[in-house]
């Protein structure tokens, strides 16, 4: 579904990605792991069309999208839930969700709202509240719900557990696993190594703009050398 090949990208003269290659298959949950500054968000933003890469290929459903506008990429069904939630604080939960279908799936807006509140029952309780009054965990649910409103074929989740309490982290990973069980392809970009590997099919480890390790998630979890050298476990 998504194939990134030898991607090189950065900002101005600063090079951040130095030839990144990875794949996400249909219905897969693939994790990209790495510390702050590894280049994970730069990769996300190039895949999503927010920035244009220096070189390399990004193919979605066999179609080249490197350098395409973010609106075209959204129209194709590749949706990113960005790091930091970025909900609209002075709009209600409902209004935030409705904005998620602005470019895609607008005719199915009412049906998709029902699907989102079934997936995240807490949002139904907060439907008329301003997003800025929600807790951190509720805002993250809202951000993911807003992404689901566009009927994604591939959902990119950038650090969804960031800033959440341990209890909410557990809940968030359970919700991500639920989305995957519904057949949605998910590209999970995270620093939370253990829980990401527990739910992922495959995983990549990024360091300094390079993929240094890749493989089945269960193999990475059980490889003692990788646990020590790359995962800090």
UniProtKB/TrEMBL annotation:
- Show the Gene3D superfamilies listed in the entry: P-loop containing nucleotide triphosphate hydrolases
Any idea where the ABC transporter domain is?
2-233
Entry keywords, A to Z: Amino-acid transport, ATP-binding, Nucleotide-binding, Transport
Select a single GO molecular function from the record's annotations and give it: ATP binding
Name of a matching Pfam family:
ABC_tran
Query: Which GO annotations describe the biological process of this protein?
Result: L-amino acid transport
Q: Does the keyword ATP-binding apply?
A: yes
SMART domains the UniProt entry points to? AAA
Q: Does the keyword Heme apply?
A: no
Return the PANTHER family for the record. Answer: HIGH-AFFINITY BRANCHED-CHAIN AMINO ACID TRANSPORT ATP-BINDING PROTEIN LIVF
Name the family the entry cites: Belongs to the ABC transporter superfamily.
The molecule here is called ABC transporter ATP-binding protein
């Amino acid at each position: 579904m998504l194939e990134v090949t030898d991607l090189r990208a950065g900002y101005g003269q600063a090079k951040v990605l130095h030839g990144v290659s990875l794949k996400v298959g249909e219905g897969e949950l693939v994790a990209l792991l790495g510390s702050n500054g590894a280049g994970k968000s730069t990769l996300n933003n190039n895949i999503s069309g927010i920035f244009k890469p220096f070189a390399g290929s990004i193919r979605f459903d066999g179609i080249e999208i490197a350098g395409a506008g973010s609106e075209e990429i959204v129209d194709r069904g590749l949706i990113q839930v960005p790091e930091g939630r970025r909900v609209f604080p002075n709009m209600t939960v409902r209004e935030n969700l409705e904005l998620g279908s602005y470019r895609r799936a607008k005719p199915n807006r009412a049906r998709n709202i029902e699907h989102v509140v079934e997936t995240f029952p807490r949002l139904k309780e907060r439907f008329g509240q301003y997003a800025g009054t929600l807790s951190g965990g509720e805002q993250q649910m809202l951000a993911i719900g807003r992404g689901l409103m566009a009927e994604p074929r591939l959902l990119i989740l950038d650090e969804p557990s960031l800033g959440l309490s341990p209890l909410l982290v557990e809940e968030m990973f359970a919700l991500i696993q639920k989305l995957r069980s519904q057949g949605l392809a998910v590209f999970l970009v995270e620093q939370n190594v253990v829980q990401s590997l527990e739910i992922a099919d495959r995983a990549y480890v990024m360091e300094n703009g390079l993929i240094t390790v890749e493989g089945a998630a269960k193999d990475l979890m059980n490889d003692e050398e990788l646990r020590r050298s790359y995962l800090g476990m």
